[in-house]
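During the reporting period the student researcher (J.K.) took over the structure-prediction task from the postdoctoral fellow and processed the backlog of single-chain submissions. One of the processed entries is reproduced below for the supervisory committee.
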Amino acid sequence: MRITVIGGTGLIGSKIVASLARDGHDVFSAAPNTGVDTLTGKGLGEAIDGAEVVIDVSNSPSLDGAAALDFFQTAGRTIAAAEKAAGVRHHLALSVVGTERLQESGYFRAKLAQEKLIRESGIPFSVVHATQFFEFLRGIAASAADGDSVRLSNARFQPMAAQDVAAAMVDAALAEPTHGTIEVAGPEAFHIDALVARVLAYDKDPRKVIADPEAPYFGIRLDDAALMPGPNARLGTTRFDWWLANVPPPPPRK
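J.K. obtained the following structure tokens:
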């Protein structure tokens, strides 16, 4: 099967591309560094031509609400037009568990607008809602850092390994379109503050994590249900302790 992965050089996309290629599929990684621009449409028609399935795991380069909305709406319309021209039979997109509950955030309002465009495009689709990735836990700490402390919500969440997200996306891509949402999550639930504290301790990071129910999560005050998946979510197999001990942190940005 020919499959195009938009955002195919990123954290999740590169794993999807590698998995599909190992299984013998004709897969193309569409990203700016492979000559594809989903905002202008440059290279997009050629990237999608002949594809039966398009997987979109691209993300806005900015968390700012207005910038994210512009990105998702512009890219969404450009991608849909190219898919219609190519006769794509399945559009698969990655989004976030709880998006509809996180509408205080401009970024998540933009994600919901992206999903609305997909649903109204007329192209058969599936949307995968994933929980937070283990790989982003250090980023969560950075977003809440204040000097020698990290102030975080103690709300519950059920994060998962990026590899498990990629596996769920591959399975959904090879299945029939659901015309709805598939939830995926990690096998264990944690409190945000406690899990980030474990990562920092493992890294020998001296910053102290302070639990604060009022602490915003990327600008949003969370309750215990905001980030949690529903009872029918597909669960990944990678446990946090194994991931922490076996998956090296990314190199520091220069």
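The committee noted the following: The chain has a mean pLDDT of 96.
J.K. will present the remaining backlog at the next meeting.
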